Amino acid sequence: MQLGLVGLGKMGGNMRERIRRAGHTVVGYDRNPEVTDVKDLAELVDRLQAPRVVWVMVPAGEVTQSVVDELGGLLEPGDVVVDGGNSRWTDDEKHAAELGAKGIGFVDAGVSGGVWGLQNGYALMVGGDKEHVERLQPIFDALKPDGPYGYVHAGAVGAGHFSKMVHNGIEYAMMQAYAEGWELLEKVDSVTDVREVFRSWQDGTVIRSWLLDLAVNALDDDEHLDRLKGFAEDSGEGRWTVEAAIDNAVPLPAITASLFARFASRQDDSPQMKMVAALRNQFGGHAVESKK
Fold first, then answer.
1. Residue 289 placed within a domain
2. CATH number for the domain including 76?
3. Residue 200's CB: how many other CB atoms inside 10 A?
4. pLDDT for 156-166, tens place per residue?
5. CA-CA distance, 98 to 79, in Å (whole number)?
6. Is the dihedral of CA 57, 63, 64, 67 positive or negative?
7. What are the residue ranges of helices labelled H in 5-84?
8. Which positions are catalytic?
9. How far apart are the C-alpha atoms of 24 and 18, rounded to whole Å?
10. Buried b (16+ CB within 10 A) or exposed e, 132-146
11. Predicted confidence (pLDDT) at residue 276 exceeds the cutoff of 80
């Protein structure tokens, strides 16, 4: 299968490689001349045979809107656009309507896997019409992890990004719990090797997880996280999750508290946020702030 892929950053570049390894043809475009296959979107579209599929992996908001607008002027009826970035689900509805008026299909795909996706595969939460999703199944199969799990057609347009948003909200709360436990262990004098306590939890306990494994990786790199500043960004999806909870009158005390904890990190050098920052760097390659 042929695929156009727009955005070849930390995730997009690895996705291109994983899809190619599965035997598909990928034409990639990025503003970085060192990684792009074509000079612009017009050449990307020209290189693909109709009916075309173009997957967009760029930052949410204005950048995604700009790419969707340009593709809307280049593609033809019967083509399909996939937004695999972290867009808000309400934007999906807007993009689907804009492209649908031109006969172009739209699918939203929440993608999880971070910098480890090339090796481990990507969990995919997909929204869109059945006919459009089925056309993309070979690409989804190439990207997902081996085995029966890691892919779902979650529902109509917007359902993929809504599901990914909730996934990220849960991720906030899980990271916050590990961070709070780590700070308490570091605080008491009786526990002399916090890193090895975390390592002991990796097998046989109910709190073992990939995030715990990544926490141990981070502590192996910097045992007391002394090199990190206690500051953690939020990607926006935690805020959207809380907003959706308010709109639907669903109580989310743990997720909401974890979001507010990140806000607190911007006021003080929070020990807990050192762990959250370390975890975000481990799984997603997100930037961290080092102490000067």
1. no
2. 3.40.50.720
3. 12
4. 999 999 999 99
5. 13
6. negative
7. 12-21, 41-47, 62-74
8. 164
9. 9
10. bbebbebbbebbbbe
11. yes
